[in-house]
Each structure stands twice: as C-alpha cells, then as structure tokens.
Amino acid sequence: MNFGDIIKTTLTDMNIISAITSTVFIILLGFFCRKRGIFNDHTAKILSNVVLTVSLPCLAFNAFMQDINPESLKESMNVLIWGLLVYVILILVSKPIFMKFKGDDQTTLRVLTVFGSTTFFGIPIATAVYGPQFGVTIALLASVFNIGYRVFLYSYGYIKMSGLKMEAKNVKSMFLNPIVLATFAGLLIWIFQKSLPQVDVTVAVPKAVENGKIVNEMVVKQFAFLRIDQTAPWLFKPLTYLAPLASPLAWLAIGATLGEVSFTKAATDKVSWFYTLVKVIGVPALNIAILAILTATNILPISFAALATIVIMMATPTATVAAAYAISFDKDALLASNASLLSTLGAVVMMPVWIIVLEVINKMGIFN
Fold this sequence. Notes:
Layout: H1 3-11, H2 14-35, H3 43-63, H4 70-97, H5 103-114, H6 118-134, H7 137-162, H8 168-175, H9 178-192, E1 198-210, E2 213-224, H10 228-231, H11 233-242, H12 246-258, H13 263-267, H14 270-296, H15 304-314, H16 320-328, H17 333-364
Antiparallel strand pairs: 1-2
Helix pairs in contact: 1-17, 2-12, 3-6, 3-7, 3-9, 3-11, 3-12, 4-5, 4-7, 5-14, 5-17, 6-7, 6-12, 6-15, 7-8, 7-15, 7-16, 14-15, 14-17, 15-17, 16-17
C-alpha cells in the first residue's frame, strides 16, 4: 500500500472520522451553550471537577481490572519509563527553544511547554478515539504514562514557578488526589493480583460456534479478591457507568471555557502563537521521532497503542495547574492566560490532524 492509499484509507475510516467529529462537535456544543447562556460562568468549573474527581478516577481504576500477562506488564513498564524520561527531555529541550526570552517570560513558557493538560484533555480523547480498538489498554497505558506528569508537575513545576523549595502541600497534591489514588490502587491490584488471596468465580467461557452463535460454557476460575470486576460486579458496575462520562463532560467543559474568554486580545500576542506551535506541534512530533528510534533499536520498544496514547496526551494545551502557578506566583499571568487560550484552540484544530498522522504511521507498520 503506497502513501496515497494510506491517506485515503485513513480519511475514509468511519471509526476515525466519527471519533474526530464527536470531539469537535461536543466542544462546539459546549461553546454554543456558554455563548447562549445555557451554561453559566460556573458550569465549566463544575464539569471539570466532576471529570477530575469522579469520572477519570473511575476510568483509571477500571483500566487495571484485567488479567495480567508478561507482554502487557513489560509495555506498561516501558511507558512508565518514557513517562518519566520525556519530562526530563522537555525540560532540557525547552531551554534553547525559548533562549531569546528572559526572566519570567522564559520560565513561564518553559513550564507551560513541559506540562500539558494530559489528564483533563488528553486521556478523554485518547480513550474515546482508540478505546474501541484496543479495549481498556489505552486507559491503562494513559494512567501509567501520567504518573511521571504528576511527579514533575508538583515538584519541578512548582519549584520553578514559585522560586521556593518543595512544600508539603504539593507532596499531598501529588499523591493524594483522586486520580493518583485510583491509578496506584488499580496498578498495585493489577501487578500483584496473582499474589493476593484468590476467590472462585463462575464465568462464561466461549466453547464453540453453532449456527453462527457463540456457545459459552460455565467454568470456575480464580481471581484476586480485589478484582471487583469479577468478584463484586455489583460494586464494579457503577464505575463502568461513571468512567465513560469523562470524555463528553470534559469536551463540554472545554467548549464552555472557550466561550468565556476573548480571543481578540490573545490573537495579537505573537509570543503565545509561537508557544502554541511548539506545544501542539513540536512536542508531539519530538515524541514520535524519539520513540521511533527507541523502538527501532529495541532500546525501549512500544506498540502503536502506546504511541497513540502518548502522542495524543502530548498534543494537549497548557495544563490548568501550570497556568495557575503562573497566575499565583505572578510569573507573567497575562502571557500564561493568552498561551492557555491559544494552545487550547490550537489543540482542538491539531488533534484531528495528529489522529490522522497516527493512523498513517500505524498503516506504515513502523510500530507493532
């Protein structure tokens, strides 16, 4: 299949097109609702809080409710390693990129470049676009990858923006927020499920196909008692209803947020435009380039599912916490606000492009 055929196949894939249009249309719906007054000035914050404290923790925990095998464990560890290394790389690379800027401007631009909205913007899109193809794998990989983000955001990000040493409140924020707690709880259950006390559970296992229908056989299997998807379905089921809310609620909140701010003022800021190009184009492209080399040399090989997850999460706008740091510590709050707005618009525009690029890479067979 030549390059033209790959592009044509990608652009006519209804699963890909539907995922892109769902994202864009629901964001536009949030924007419309805010402009028409259907959403008030508190709606975006309320929706964001629901996503961050309810839906995303459920999504993160549910992702680990699956059997473990050596291959998935190895890839998860590779994603975790890259999730830590990439922030070190971005911290180093951002220095020469913004070298012509001085003082607070450089500090703010570097921190905003290093930290994107991976949790609120990236995970809902990645799971919505690629979840149907790879099942819960995407949510699992996204949760593991995001561990490094949390560690660096509340340590390096805080120290750099505040000029102070690490404080206890940030250590608390790093480890005791609902998403991190759910991620680590699920991760530990997933890794150690063979060592935990086991419970006999009767499950349906496909036995044969008769008249085009799958015939199941009921067998008894053992699961860790904390695998509530098998041992306590009455407890797990509510989580399966809450987890899918992350994507639509996040997109509505993004649209409502865009409906509250003035694009005209931000559009005249050339520095914010430069930052936006670096953030939504340069950062994900850098990830693709380095990961392609690491995979080709078998130094840190990852699958296409992992690549897609990482690129989507890296092609996100300014992290809310990073922008809040700039405002709280008076590190050019206006620049941070303009950069946040333009990068959000840029991410909305570029996300479909990156999804198409990823599909082209997938069909070229660069990653398994």
